[in-house]
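TL;DR need structure tokens for one chain.
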Amino acid sequence: MNIEKIISELSFKAVRSSGAGGQNVNKVSSKVVLTFDVNVSQALSDEEKLLLQTNIAPRLTTENILILNCDEDRSQFKNKSIVTKRFLELIKNALIIQKPRKATKIPKAVIRKRIKDKKNISEIKKSRKKPNLD
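>> reply
TL;DR here they are.
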């Protein structure tokens, strides 16, 4: 994965942000929308594309386009850097291949201890019974 090449493939769009902010909200386009087309990307191999499509499937559109928004700051430049960091973190986490879990056997010492404890509890409960005087 070539980070510089991936960043060059990103497209940014500045949009008017919603919410509080007074007149500034109506004048300034500070919200940044990042779009990344997974299918068209030259920076990712076919295996990486497939891995991305499976790992971040809920975040992709039907055309396999990833869309991220950021309107946290009043500065368009800061919002652009925030959304780019989020994107790179998301891609890095999605490309990590999980190791398959290996099932392990229960150790014999653990089984013996459990049975010994059960017998001990059974003996304690037997000793609580009234003696049979017949």
